[in-house]
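Record format v2
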Amino acid sequence: MTRLVPRSIRAKLALYVLLLLAVLVIGLLTSVYLLARRSIWQSFRDSLAAEARSFASMMEYERGGSFDIEIPESFLSRFDPVPGCEYYRVFDYLGRRLAVSRSLQKNTELWRPSPDWFRKARPGDDIFRKIRTEGEEKGLLTLKCLPRIEAGEQQNGESEKGKKGKARDTVSLQRAAIIVQVTQSTGPVRHLLSRLGTILLVGGFLTLAMATLGSRAVAHVGLRPIRNLASSVQRINEHTLGTRVPHRTLPDELIPLATKTNEMLSRLEKAFQREKRLTSDAAHEIRTPLSALITALEVALRKERSGEEYKETMIECLSSARNLKKLTDSLLFLAALDAGKVHAKPRPVNIRKLLDETIDIYRERAKKKSLPIGTNVSVQEATVEPDLLVPILNNLISNAIEYCRPGDSVSISAYKRASDSALCIEVADTGPGIPQSDIEKLFYRFYRGRQEGDTDIGHAGLGLAIAAKAAEAMGGRIEVESELGKGCTFRVVLR
Amino acid sequence: MRLLVIEDNKTLAYSLRQGFREEGFAVDVAADGEEGLWYAQSNPYDVIVLDLTLPKLDGLEVLRQIRKCGIASHVICLTARGATEDKVHALNLGADDYLAKPFAFEELLARVRSLCRRAYQRKDPIIRVADLEINTASRTVRRGGNLIQLSAREYALLEFLAFHAGEVVTRTMIWDHLYDFADESTSNVVDVHVCLLRKKIDTDTGHPLIHTRRGEGYILEDIPVPQHVGRERKR
């Protein structure tokens, strides 16, 4: 099925403009034609009336009610009985024929008004009709008018004053009135009208044809800013996200579009950069242990060595390989969390038992750094997903131990928050604390806080990012409070 | 030649130290940027192998500081980031070379040696003093066409003397460039090594090339042998 309305704005605009123009042009030309026709017919009628009046002027009303008719022969030649001739007739007010053209003497009958009209019409009244005789259309004008009136009569009428005289005047004038009928072929008028019609029609078509081209051109020019915008948007790909749509030169209507596009581009660019940085960070984290592994093996193989030396190299390599495995696991888990593939299946868990078991793993490490770990659990059982909660706790506890200085302490507590009855598990330490400006960065991937002393390569800066994501997967979050030099508190809040 | 390896990955740093030591380099290792910068400022290293991702002080910052202090050591950057802008940035900050992780140790070694030659304005890998020929690329030494087997340390000493051929090399220079912090700092260790080298280079010929300048140090130079010295020896 073909569409009635085209898809492109340009074609649509052109079509609408054209339709509007067509209506306007047709309306205008039609009214011009109608007005012209009216005035042409009017002037035709006027010329007939003038002719009729000239007949009347050639008649004189004489005293005694008779008419003196003096029509010059030259005037009458038009009314000779030949094909296409014209007619005239003159009646008195009673409908008696006073004069008739020669062309009418052969029984040709013309339309005549009713006898009533003959009597009652006022001088100057006329009737215009179109008649058809001998296969030709003619205009027939029937005019009631006054002929010339003999001077004496007129003087008489004027000299006699008073109501009676005036009434008699009217009566005599009514008697003097004659009715003239004249015909004239409508051929020239119709010819004129048809020529006018043709001119207007052709003109209208030409106008519309030009309007078609014009409207396309106007639409083309009018849509240039949109095309420019479209082409500058089209040029943007993932490598040129830094470019912005120029919006200063755009018309007002398009500025919001360009501004929004630019805002979206900025967000996209940021997301892309973050993505790029993440990929490059991940690559870095993988390449470093990989590089260590390769170099250790290459150096070991450069010459014959003792079994002890080989063993040492193998231990080094194993530790690098383990780091790689740990990193890969973390990245895969994070990817699964990102993709929403990790679903929490909460079940009732004894929180005290879960915490005790988790903390037990770290007792030895804490003891080495002489860090006491205290617990304060006021929740017995809660519905949680231990497979997600335990990694979070592992991360928080190992971080606390790692960043604390010897002599600090770590305390772990679980409770229901009074305000919203959310389950809170807190890991608080009295360690060096975190500057306020760094708290947000803690959850960035591959972000590592400043660490005094030894730098453990086993930790890539993914732990808190994973913990935050895992908490999110359980419908919770991690809150951080810290005061520099006094320690910090990480709180897992689960609703 | 003395190297400084600034690398936070312990396994990698350890392997590099071992690999370079076995090739006759004196190697010091720093595990973070601050330590690395301190090492670089306190010893005249011939080449610094600098990892760009370091704790405490970023590798690029270490590089900037090194150049700011006017330390002339050649720097080769190691990084796990392959991005071109990182390379360009590092080179613009005054790095002499750049190697992406993971790299082949052989390649790093070749690049470090090339930087060492550049440090002594030598483009030709073969140094000739009289009939002594030292190939710094293949690390082989010939005297009069005969191949001489040297230990890594002896070779390094000969190469160092050869780089300064015709100039007096003091004991301190040798100590600074050929021994790292892990070496036993006994006062005569340099003399012992020079003595061992002399035995292999100069013994069977009547034309010694390594000379002792009393109170100054040593010089590798082609000095025509005075006749009476020859006679003394015969006696």
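Chain A has a mean pLDDT of 83.
The longest strand of chain A covers residues 136-145.
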